[in-house]
Amino acid sequence: MKKDTVELICSVSELTSLFESQAGLAGFLQKVVSLVAFHMKAAVCSVYLYDEDSEELVLTANQGLNQKYIGNLRIKLGEGITGQALKELRPIREGRVWQNPNFKYLADLHEDQYQAFLAVPILHGNRKIGVLVVQDPQPYYFSDNDVRAFRAIAAQLASTIENAKLLLSLHEEKKPPRPRPEEVVSTPGGSRFIRGVSACEGVSIGRALKLTGIDHEWDPDPTESPDTLTEDDFLRALRQTEEQLTDLQRQLGERMADVASLIFDAHVLILKDDEFSGVMLRLIRQGTPPELAIREVVDSYVALFSKSSSIMLREKVHDVRDLSMRLVSNLRRRTSSPVDYSGQIVVAGDLLPSDLLKLSAQRAEGVILIGGGVTAHVSVLARTLRIPMVIVKDPPLLDSEKGPETNIILDADQGNIIINPAEDVLAHYRTILESRKDTVIDAVVQPTTSTLDGRRIRLMANINLLSELPTAQRLKAEGIGLYRSEFPFIVRNDVPTEEEQFRIYQKVLEAMPEQEVVLRTLDVGGDKILSYFPDNAENNPSLGLRAIRFSLRNKEMFMQQLRAMLRAGAGRPLSVMFPLISSVDDFLDARKIIEESIQSLKEENAPCNEHPRLGAMIEVPSAVELAEDLAQEADFLCIGSNDLVQYILAVDRTNERIADLYIPYHPAVLRAINRVVNGALIHGKPVSLCGDMATDERVLPLLIGLGIRAFSMDSRRIPKIQEFITSLRYDDTRKLAHDMLRMGSLKAVEERLKAHSG
Ligand code: PEP
Ligand code: MG
Predict the structure, then answer these.
(1) Which residue has the CA at smallest separation from atom 4 of ligand 1?
(2) pTM above the 0.85 mark?
(3) Claim to verify: residue 710 and residue 678 sit in the same structural domain
(4) Structural domain range at position 290
(5) Given this model, what pLDDT does residue 613 score?
(6) Atom of ligand 1 at shortest range from CA of 619
(7) Which residue of 305, 380, 542, 639 has the smallest Cβ count within 10 Å?
């Protein structure tokens, strides 16, 4: 049998001319896909329509796949080959679909049996209408001729679909734009597919483990009957638990000295408390079986803590629960402790940074956060710890799951969760995991970075935890452009002492003895909450007592931090930077406190750096306006683009609903950056950039063209960014910047960027 493209084009043409809106668009498109599949002798044909509100493609008609996906399967613009075809406005043909890195395997669609893949965008002018897709098991099945035929068909369909939509919209009220939908698809094999939002990329496979906090359920199925256990068993379990916790604390201390403080030591303290293990022992001596005694005491603690008005005590519920699970497990002589989370994906309602750290130390494979908000810092921490994490909005979503029996694939690259996946889906993801051995760390990097025409660009590291320092060294970061000093404050449940801070900063500085190291003072407030600080509820925290404002109001704490930094910087160059400066006065006030700190250290004869370089972070519009004045006072400026974009555009950087409005290449942002660079230039002061823009290849040429010479980033990105910069010509970036600064419209900027990258 032969394909008949001419006949096909004629038939589609006839069909479109006969289209009547009353029959419904979906019905019409269903006829189209049947016709295409028939004439092309193709196994699968689909039409996806583009939903402008959600910026997603919706499967509207299909022949060859399971019909239940019609209307349910949604693909983001740019996602998979289909999404990519529409985003890039070009047909994409693959002879063997697996060879395209963009191919997205969807649970239970069994698309893997179809090797040949052709996706053609349906466009009306440059309006996005949808995508026409054909698939077939025979590799390289579609020819150049087929691509041409499909383009012709797509063109015909475009106007019919546009007209149909117009007619239909007359009958139906326009729906308000929806927030990004959270989609659940069930399949006949019992799999479920949930789409959430990715907070930290990665893929993991494991069994679900629900952390339900207060209403934690005891395991109803003890492997050993509780009443055969004795007081001796309990005492042995107690000793064993203490040993395990001490060991965990030691390991954590070695791996993460800056944030490890007391996490597991706190467990030991509770464990040894007479009110805890003492009461258990007394109950056992009075005849209560050991496991019941543990449950009784733990339940009373959980009830007590969860009612407390103190956040810190409420947080202890998790600790007590962890502890009881470990104790019971040791009592039952289980070989693997349930508090080793390896092989498990933790499902939790809310999560504190310290919880995440515990989960990481206990080797959790991934995290699903339900309902609870996530602060930007929990995401940053997840990325630092490299734990894949997805957030889903709807709390009941996972309620029906049994927990330990539930297999989960967490595809946090896509924000997808597949519950009880089919065997072939599992196999596919296992292959992905296998292929993802850590290659970044082995990348070949040059000690310095230059553009093609020899312009030097400095790539530095952003450091959150000490554990990231070896990677920064290995990947040849030219210094540390941003040490986020708030991490130890946020992750631990207490304020580190001056001495503890001193030791942490010393380690940061020692890691790069020959290079510039910039320590940023505390940036808390906003979404970076210190749970142990009272009165932190604000109506508008991003505009509230954040960063330098917090430090200036809490002078004691600020001085402690500055003293620790100055002491750590004794006998070597030291740069200190203040976040969220919004006036020259902020900067001068902060400088005055540094001077007082130096004075106090001198009076104590403590060795310290008496002449630190002082920098102002440019993160708010008022600092942009005053960039020149700030450059006059400061030794350097550093653009915190994550916040700068948020505040210039008035778009919350943590709000997923308006993530599409958070546009780093917005003309207002570009002009602001230009102003800051010029302000610094007037006073001959260096200016660097340390937000995510530094690794955004769309805007990086522009930033270089605007005159920024130093970028600080997650050091794992250095190899790729170095390679990218090496391919740029400085003269081209200058021209790009020059052109773009004159553009006022976002669309014009987008088109220019596209032309540049193409
Ligand atoms: C920034 O705002 O760009 C920045 C680097 O600081 P943070 O992300 O810690 O707010
Ligand atoms: Mg910032």
Answers:
(1) 640
(2) no
(3) yes
(4) 192-216+223-436
(5) 98
(6) 2
(7) 542
